[in-house]
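Hello,

I think I submitted the pyridoxal-5'-phosphate job twice by accident. Can you confirm which output corresponds to this input? Input:
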Amino acid sequence: MTQLEDDRARVERRIAAACRQAGRERDEVRLLAVSKTRSTAEIRALHALGQRLFGENYVQEFVAKHDALTDLDPPPEWHFIGALQTNKTRAVAERAAWVHGVDRLKIAERLSRQRPDAMAPLQVCLQVDLSGEPGKAGVPPQEAGALAAAVARLPNLALRGLMAIPAPAQDPAGQRRPLARLRELRDSLNAQGRDLDTLSMGMSDDLEAAILEGSTLVRIGTALFGPRRPKARQS
Ligand SMILES: *Cc1c(COP(=O)(O)O)cnc(C)c1O
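Support: Only one job matched these inputs. Its output is below.
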């Protein structure tokens, strides 16, 4: 077995065990392979093992990899999971299946306007800031309802759910608290008339806690590919 096969099997076992513990079906949780900083060869190798969902968080890197991998069959489902500036929305609108980091109406409006008509609507998750600290990415929870209502009206987007990147916590209870708050926020938005089926939460260190709290999509980098190399050393 290669290292990648080994790591993928280990992640798969963790997801399956967490689903069993949560009393959920395995197919309720999708695995997004976070391939930032990884080579196209690594992405091809993981795709050959059956992985279909890939996530990138820098626009230039996403565009380069997406465009270098258009021959893959079946095509990967590309998720953009990073912060988006207004001048970078078009490249993402023309390539991604999903965007997880939407936290402002202006970004959503541009993505909708720039989404090519020939493509399916762009699937969107709103990023929520659970830290309460100013300057962090994400919409504050108390503003999420208004943003969700506005985004839901945009023609070329499909609002699917919420995403968060909680601050790291050491103990399982500390990990679960913010994840539970994201689920409760999703439930309260649905009670207000939204139809959100996606909770994008859970990374290498907290995927079990996230699945116990209702995650439907875990975003996994390190546990699949090993530690990321420092940016400056990449070729
Ligand atoms: C890098 C990244 C991940 C993956 O983190 P790991 O701890 O390596 O699994 C998940 N989500 C986002 C938004 C990221 O930028």
